[in-house]
Design goal:
homotetramer; alpha+beta; 7-stranded mixed sheet; 4 helices; 27% helix
Chain lengths: 161, 161, 161, 161
C-alpha cells in the first residue's frame, strides 16, 4: 500500500520526540485499565504505537480466545497514543469514536496492537490499528483492524481513553 | 423514536425464551474477561441485554474515568448477548464488527450497558448499544453509543466476544 | 427508547430557529449532488432533518433497488443538516466520519432519510440516521441506520458534505 | 505497512480471474447510480477494484467540492467489487455496512476510489477503501478512507450496492 505512505506524508515531524515519547509512556503507565488486562507499551515512534498483550485466561471469552472487546480496548489505546505522539506538548488527546472489525478468533500466546496515524489534523486525527496474534509456533495472524478518530484537546492533558 | 419500534417489529418472537435466557447467562458466566472487569449481566430479554459495570480504579484511564475501551468491551458483550437471545438454540453468535462513539467522560459510580437488536436477520443481526453512567447523585448520563454487527453461526456455540 | 430522549436532553434550545432553518435550507439548496439524485429537504427542526428521496431507475444498482451508497449520501446530508441546525449562526459543519448499516434492500417508491442529533457538543456532534423505504402500499420499512460524527467549524460556512 | 500484505495473504487465488473480472464489469455496468454520478470502473484485479470519478459541478456540495456522500457511494462500490472479484462464480455480494472517514475536502479534477480486500472469509469479507483526489497539477491527495463489511450470498447474483 504505497498510497498509505503518501497518506502518511501528512504527518508533521515531531519537533522533540524524546519529550513526546516520555509523555506517552507516562500517560500509558497511568492507565490502570491497561495494567488490569496486562497490556504493555512496547514501542512509541512518531505517529506509531505498539502495545503487547500477552494471552491470559482471565481476558478470554467463553471459548478460551481473547475477548474481542479487550483486544479492542488495547487497540484503542494503541491508536490513541499513536495520535498523542504527534500532538503539541500542551495538548491532550480524546477518543471521539472507533470501529473494530474482527477478522479471526483471538487465538495466540500474545497479541500485538499497532496504532498508526493516517492523517494528523489540527483538531482531528485519524488512526488505523491492526491487532496481530502471535501463535505458539511464532507465526503471526491479523485478527482485527480498527479505524479511530481522535481529537486534540487543549484544556486537559493525556489521553482520555 | 417511534420508528425504532417499527424497526424492531422485525424481531421474531423467541419460541422458548426461558431456554434462551439460560443459554445467554451460561455464556456470559463463561466470559472470564467480563469477570476481570467486574461486569454483571443484569437483565436479558428477547433482543435486549443489560450489563452493569461498577466503577473501580483498576478500570480507569489516567484521568480516573472509566477507560473507553473497557466500556466498549462491556457494551460489545451487551450487544452480542442481545443478538444471541434471539438466535436458534443450536446457533452461536459472532461479533463481525462494532463502532463506538464516545459522548462524555466515563465518570460515575456505575455504568449500565444496554444492547438492543435493531434488525435480526437469518445470518446478520444489527444491534445498538447505549452506555449510561450513574452519577453519585443517582442521575444518569449517556456516555457512549455503539452499533454492532453480529453473525449467526451454526458450527460453534456461544458468543465469540 | 426512552433513554434516547434522555440522551437528547443535551440538545441546546435553538435561540432563533427560524434563522437556523433558513440557513439549513439555503445550504441544502446549494448541494448540487442532492439535486442530481433527486433528494428534497422535507423538514428541518432543532436537531432533526428529514430528506425525501423518490426512487428513480437512475439511482439504482443492478438489481433495480436504490444504491446503498446513494441512500448513504442522502442520509449523510440528513445527519449533517440535523447537526447544523443546532450550531451557532457563524459556524459551519464538517462531516468527520459516518457509518452506514444496511438492514434491507432499497426497495420502495420513495425513501425518507431522517437525521437526529444524539449529542451536540461544542466541537463534536454525534447524529443518528434512519433510512425508511415507503413501499407501494404505503407501508414503511427501515432499510439502513447511520451514526455520523460532525464537527463545528468557525472558519467557513455551510456544510462540507 | 508490510503487515497489510501478511493480512492479504488470506486472499485465495482466483481460479479463473478472467471470468470473475467479466462478471464484475457486467455488474458494474448495470449500476445506473454509478452512471448517474459519472463513475467508471478503471481496473479490476483479484481482491482490488479501482473506480475513477471525474469531478463535475453536479456532484458537488455547496462549497464546490465533491459531496462526501457521492465519494462514499463510489468508494462503497470499489470495496464491493473488490470483494466480489474473489467470490465463487455462483455467488453474489451484499454490503453489510461501511464506515467512511473524511480526511480532506473533495477538491480535485478527478477522484480515484480504490477498494482492497483485507480478509476474504467464507461468508464475510472485509475490504478497505481509499479515495484519492487528483489535483489540477497532477498531484494526489488522500481525501477519505473506508472499511466495509461484505457478505457472500448464494441466493442472488451481483452486488447489492
Amino acid at each position: 500500500m504505497q498510497q498509505a505512505f503518501a497518506g502518511q506524508a501528512d504527518i508533521p515531524p515531531a519537533a522533540d520526540f524524546a519529550a513526546a515519547a516520555a509523555r506517552v509512556r507516562t500517560s500509558f503507565d497511568r492507565q490502570a485499565a491497561m495494567r488490569l488486562i496486562g497490556a504493555r507499551l512496547e514501542r512509541i515512534e512518531p505517529g506509531r504505537a505498539e502495545i503487547a498483550l500477552p494471552f491470559r485466561p482471565d481476558i478470554a471469552q467463553q471459548h478460551g480466545f481473547a475477548h474481542a472487546g479487550i483486544v479492542g480496548a488495547a487497540l484503542d489505546s494503541a491508536c490513541g497514543f499513536a495520535a498523542y505522539s504527534l500532538m503539541p506538548q500542551d495538548a491532550g488527546v480524546l477518543t471521539v469514536e472507533y470501529k473494530l472489525n474482527l477478522l479471526a478468533p483471538g487465538a495466540g500466546r500474545e497479541f500485538r496492537l499497532i496504532g498508526r496515524v493516517r492523517k494528523a489534523g489540527r483538531t482531528i486525527t485519524v488512526a488505523e490499528g491492526e491487532a496481530w496474534a502471535i501463535r505458539d509456533d511464532g507465526t503471526r495472524k491479523l485478527i482485527a483492524t480498527m479505524t479511530g478518530t481522535l481529537m486534540t484537546v487543549r484544556d486537559r492533558d493525556g489521553i482520555q481513553g
